[in-house]
Amino acid sequence: MKAKKSYGQHFLIHEQVAQRIAGSLTGAGAYRHILEVGPGKGMLTKYLTALPYDLLAVEADRDMVTYLQQHYPTVTVLSADFLQLDITNCFQGEPFAIIGNFPYNISTQILFKMLDYRSGVPELVGMFQKEVAERVIAPPGSKVYGITSVLVQAFYEGKYLFTVDRRNFSPPPKVQSGVIRLIRREQPLVTESEVLFKKVVKQAFSQRRKMLRNTMKPFLEGDPLLEDPFFQQRPEQLSVADYVQIVRWITERIGEG
User: Fold this and answer.
1) Which CATH number describes the domain made up of 194-254?
2) Which residues lie below 8 Å from residue 193, measured CB to CB, with a gap of 6+?
3) What is the pTM of this model?
């Protein structure tokens, strides 16, 4: 199992950690398939094959694809870049979970791709760089609460499961890792325009030290609503529901155009 970063590849070498990651899937959403991203040498794959799911492994490194095909001949291994893959076709449109020890340098992009395909992804279990894992599930008011936190939590409920020490990899990375689980909400918190919601969140956090009365001007220029005490807050103080309310106000006043 590998995680990619600028300083090279890092393979998970601790059997119990791999077993614990595989065992973190809950089956929420009653799916029958799982997609493993970046299986590397198959440390996690080994335990996923023991689960009652149809497994597809997606690996970008051709050498690792050959290794997996030789050591796990019963597993379907797709040689592809996950970020470029149309995952709607992986299981003929049926729902599936995403799992993996994600390459650090694209882990946030993996989350955003999950959001794009969320209608088919009821659950995700992943190992991330620890600070990224903490950011995803951070509550309002946290120093690491940001764009990723809000966008993911609008559609998924997250839980930090456990920390994985750097010594569990070969060679050891410079950072610790964290495993989280995301389960898709039955009802998303975003009820208005999702496009506008993303724009509002990104605009708010583009200047996270400024109050919303300043950062929301592009959407509410000249509107007396900006003088409301609500807009004296900074972006990290707002819940997902607060951002949804801002979108609702904008839609009511000036629409999305």
Assistant:
1) 1.10.8.100
2) 247, 251, 256
3) 0.93
